[in-house]
Specification:
The chain is built from 3 helices and no strands. With about 80 residues, the protein is mainly α. The chain has one domain. The mean pLDDT is about 90.
Amino acid sequence: MRSTQLHYENGKGYDIIDVCKDYALNFNRGNIIKYVARAGKKKDELQDLRKALDYLQREITYLEEKQKEYIKQTIDR
């Protein structure tokens, strides 16, 4: 399914949101892809890459916490 409006014309007929939906990416992972893909297409390339890095760190932290909780639950059994 294609978005009704392309935010960044790529000549392909799809937008990053279509890719994120197709791969069922969560919010953090979708934003990582979005900011990396648009880096250099707007005025502040470094800001977009920093945003991607921030969302990557959030996803890593989330997964680390999830893993810790799983280990804790396994030990408590």
